[in-house]
Write a sequence for this structure.
């Protein structure tokens, strides 16, 4: 085994503080709830190369209508070695004229825009494009300085926009329960740091001035509305449809949505913020029927995560959730060091940092800690700053990709020249994650899980496999079928002479 135990032990020591911080956090739960949850998403998104070295991306029409999907998704395309001065073009219909995609460099600070960034060292073009309101297709080509279509092919969808290392998203609960100035001030302060914020709105508590205040903040940018019920009830709801679907309808009828929440004349609310974090099967069904993409729940007594349901793709955890200020003593923090270190852990290991708040309890005039923390987490070029619902628009498309065998669809794509091992997904996870890889040729394959001391935990795969895309799930058990403890694990994939190793984090 090719593992440096000294290096691993050093890593463990560095993780001790981070894991201690994470143990203090009360985690929020994220459930992927959408109409197509029980369907095979492999029929929803198609990506193909043409003989003209053009890439075609096609989404199912009904899904496009139901969810809009205008947020730019980052598609990684191969480019030849020694390339330079490339230009990417896009169109949305075969008869349409090609338009150049604006180029961004690694020195540019940008988020959520349609752009291309070339990484000539990696031989990859990161093309970020959203679906248009008039077409279910996206056509992309890349030309060289002599205006020839280069030999480019689709590799994967980046885990995060522009292949960033981590995500920062935020929600602000209970707009309607308190007066507007608290929320207006918080939105304006987050905007000053180029941070997106998604206020959770209680619609029956709003008067005309409140609706106007919300609309004004949407128009100024960096604000995405999400649903928080009509009356903020505890379970059981007297009228589930009114609270879940009715709230969404209120928001759509009373607000002009930001561009990422639109598709032609259709408007969308993507996130359901459960009042008090309450959950029931009936609410879950209503959230799914109402076509929300994500439900933010809270489970105080379940160690931060619910059970992972692979078939429904529900209850996916974020990296860390913490409340700015702490409306409840067990969820939040006013400790700048704790807040900053929690973010730093997520940035180091990759993942989603979800900053929750109740704006009515934050004293922006007299408290220093929120200003210091926002300064610490903002304006980083390796972080994707995004609205809470928009994050899951991206994840929705990514899920379609994650569940399909692209190689079988694309006859013109060449197999990789060596073993490709993707980062497990989700990561961090509890209790199931998926390992994905691509074989350049028929090989005898071993997929082995190790703990951070180099001990074998589970021999997942030990057999001959044909070339192409492969995936295998690990349910956080050892070779005896017993659950393993939370922590950092390594997975090594060996195919013939090719070997690659990556780490993953199990949380309980």
């Amino acid at each position: 085994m090719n593992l440096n135990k000294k290096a691993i032990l050093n890593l463990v020591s560095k993780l001790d503080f981070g894991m201690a911080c994470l143990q203090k956090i009360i985690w929020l739960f994220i459930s992927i709830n959408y109409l197509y949850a029980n369907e095979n998403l492999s029929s929803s998104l198609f990506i193909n190369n043409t003989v003209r070295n053009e890439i075609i991306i096609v989404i199912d029409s009904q899904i496009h209508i139901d969810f809009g999907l205008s947020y730019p998704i980052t598609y990684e395309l191969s480019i030849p070695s020694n390339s330079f001065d490339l230009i990417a073009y896009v169109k949305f219909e075969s008869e349409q004229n090609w338009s150049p995609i604006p180029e961004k460099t690694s020195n540019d600070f940008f988020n959520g825009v349609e752009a291309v960034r070339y990484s000539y060292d990696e031989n990859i073009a990161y093309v970020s494009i959203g679906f248009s309101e008039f077409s279910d297709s996206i056509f992309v080509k890349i030309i060289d300085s002599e205006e020839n279509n280069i030999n480019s092919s689709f590799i994967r969808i980046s885990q995060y926009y522009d292949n960033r290392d981590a995500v920062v998203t935020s929600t602000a609960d209970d707009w309607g329960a308190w007066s507007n100035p608290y929320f207006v001030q918080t939105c304006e302060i987050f905007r000053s740091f180029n941070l997106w914020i998604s206020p959770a709105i209680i619609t029956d508590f709003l008067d005309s001035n409140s609706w106007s205040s919300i609309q004004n903040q949407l128009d100024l940018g960096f604000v995405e509305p999400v649903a928080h019920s009509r009356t903020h009830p505890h379970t059981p709801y007297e009228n589930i449809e009114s609270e879940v679907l009715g709230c969404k309808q209120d928001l759509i009828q009373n607000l002009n949505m930001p561009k990422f929440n639109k598709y032609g004349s259709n408007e969308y609310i993507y996130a359901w913020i459960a009042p008090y974090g309450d959950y029931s099967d009936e609410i879950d069904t209503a959230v799914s029927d109402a076509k929300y993409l994500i439900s933010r729940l809270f489970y105080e007594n379940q160690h931060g995560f619910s059970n992972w349901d692979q078939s429904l793709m529900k209850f996916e955890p974020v990296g860390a959730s913490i409340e700015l200020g702490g409306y409840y003593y067990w969820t939040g923090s006013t400790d700048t060091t704790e807040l900053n270190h929690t973010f730093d852990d997520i940035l180091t290991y990759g993942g989603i940092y979800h900053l929750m708040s109740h704006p009515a309890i934050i004293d922006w005039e007299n408290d220093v800690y929120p200003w210091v923390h926002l300064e610490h987490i903002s304006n980083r070029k390796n972080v994707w700053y995004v609205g809470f619902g928009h994050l899951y628009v991206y994840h929705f498309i990514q899920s379609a990709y994650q569940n399909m065998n692209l190689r079988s669809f694309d006859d013109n794509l060449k197999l990789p020249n060596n073993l490709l091992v993707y980062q497990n997904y989700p990561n961090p996870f509890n209790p199931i994650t998926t390992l994905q890889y691509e074989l350049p040729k028929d090989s005898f394959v071993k997929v082995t899980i190790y703990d951070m001391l180099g001990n074998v935990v589970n021999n997942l795969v030990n057999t001959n496999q044909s070339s192409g895309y492969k995936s295998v799930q690990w349910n956080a058990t050892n070779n005896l079928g017993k659950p393993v403890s939370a922590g950092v694990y390594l997975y090594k994939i060996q195919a013939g002479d090719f070997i690659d190793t990556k780490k993953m984090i199990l949380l309980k």
